[in-house]
Amino acid sequence: MTIMEETEGTKARLRKVLVDSLELSVAPSEVPDRGLVEALGLDSINTIEFLIWVESEFGVEIADEDLSIKLIDDLDLLADYVDSRMKPDESLAEQPS
Asked: What confidence tens digit (pLDDT) does each residue in 7-36 have?
């Protein structure tokens, strides 16, 4: 799978999580790549709830210092962030003896 395919797959999952977690009355395919806060009328509570669902869905932890409106507002940035957090840490990989 290419990086672009991986990102698109992650974005599709993020759209579904967003719609499901916030019970939005739009189809996941209608969620834009950018401008989510304005387009969907998200407030601070919605964004926190969404990020909790993202952490649960993808098995990642979003670091407090990484939280920003820019991350939440742009699916490309969020997908890249999630993908980078899901990659196994090579330093923890078993070293050959």
From this structure: 889 999 999 999 999 999 999 999 999 999
SS3 state at 38: helix
Residues whose CB is less than 8 angstroms from the CB of residue 43 and which lie 6 or more positions away in sequence, other chains included: none
Residues 6+ apart with CB under 8 A from 78: 14, 54, 71, 72
**What is the rounded CA–CA span in Å between residue 40 and residue 26?**
9
**74 DSSP β-pair partners:** 34
Task: Reduce the DSSP state of residue 60 to 3 states and report it.
Answer: coil
Query: Which residue has tokens 């919605």?
Result: 46
CA-CA distance, 90 to 92, in Å (whole number)? 5
At 29, which amino acid appears?
S
pLDDT, tens digit (0-9, with 9 covering 90-100), for 48-90: 999 999 999 999 999 999 989 899 999 999 999 999 998 765 4
Question: How many residues are given for the chain?
Answer: 97
